[in-house]
Amino acid sequence: MTDQNCWEFKKCGREPNGTMVAELGVCPASIETKVDGIHGGKNGGRSCWVVSGTYCGGKVQGTYASKLSNCLTCEFFINVGKDIGKNRVSTGEILELLK
Asked: Which pTM does this prediction carry?
């Protein structure tokens, strides 16, 4: 899965020009430039768990605090952790970038 963004892994179609943009809108993770490059992703594509308004489990998710329990069991989140190992940027650091 190396360097695959969440929208590529999940095949949600919410990336810019994606197949589901007309119905569900563009995913905030796919356009959040403040965290571009984190964990090797494009925009928030490999730190989506800290970006508010992502789409998962059939609905738009809220803030980091409200969606964290879903993210901790997400296959993509787990795989990113395995891919990056000790090179992980902490969630606190990513949240600071988003301020």
From this structure: 0.85
